[in-house]
Amino acid sequence: MMKKAAERKQNLMTILVVLMVFAAVVFMGSVLTASADTEADAHLVQNMQKVQKTVDMSGYQLNFTGDAAKKEGQYIFQIQLENPELFYVSSARGWAFYRKNNGDVTKVQVGYTMSGSEAAKAKVQFDNAVSWIVKKAEKKSSQRAQVEVVNDEIKKATEYDYSYARKNRYNAYGALVEGKAVCMGYATAFKAAMDRLGISNGYRLNRDGSHIWNTVRIGGKTLNVDVTWNDTTRSNRYLLTKSHTTKAL
User: Fold this and answer.
1) What's the pLDDT tens digit per position in 122-151?
2) Which of 38, 106, 159, 205 has the most crowded CB, counting CB atoms within 10 A?
3) What is the mean predicted confidence (pLDDT) over 16-26?
4) Longest Cα separation, the chain
5) Which InterPro entries is this protein grouped with (predicted)?
6) The last residue of a domain, from among 51, 74, 109
7) Angle at 104 between CA 102 and CA 107, to 5 degrees
8) Within this chain, do residues 10 and 92 fall inside the same structural domain, yes or no?
9) The whole model's pTM is what?
């Protein structure tokens, strides 16, 4: 029992660290880079979609000043969270940034959790899972109703991973294909569907950075959707609410 309690505590600490890094991205985005280049982001994403291990960045203005290692980590999380379909990209391992003396990044080595062939197969599974949910939501005429459908379908597809042991527990693939995830998996799965439906959306964290959920912009209002808590409480208490802040599981 003591061993299990220690393992659970360690896994919760891992989730907290991941979300705290994400908090730095969301609430302190100005610390990332002095020369933010959205074309660089798009170029990197396009190469990640091809599962390229080394990406030439010499034609782009990507420069991390100050604590470069920390900002590189934040940058990786930012790319991943804004692109849930990149679930096969590693959060930390296998990455390396190469730069000139002035700090400009010339090359990025990308880390992956799957081989190219494994990712290709997984992407088909993921695309099918998201498409099925989106097609069901598109039968509804209002964005509010579409959000409700997506919330309910993710609840049906996913169980909370109380073991905190699965490799894909933090991403949308874990939620929609493997059927096991923690809050970040639920949240990125929801974003994947919202993006395809064309519904404006974002993320939010609670005060201590231990829990993540989604927001949607509907009818000029920003509303909260916490699929994780809707699933674990077997209710829709946290669906399209004006305010929301809650603890991690």
Assistant:
1) 999 999 999 999 999 999 999 999 999 999
2) 205
3) 47
4) 55
5) Papain-like_cys_pep_sf, Transglutaminase-like
6) 109
7) 135
8) yes
9) 0.85
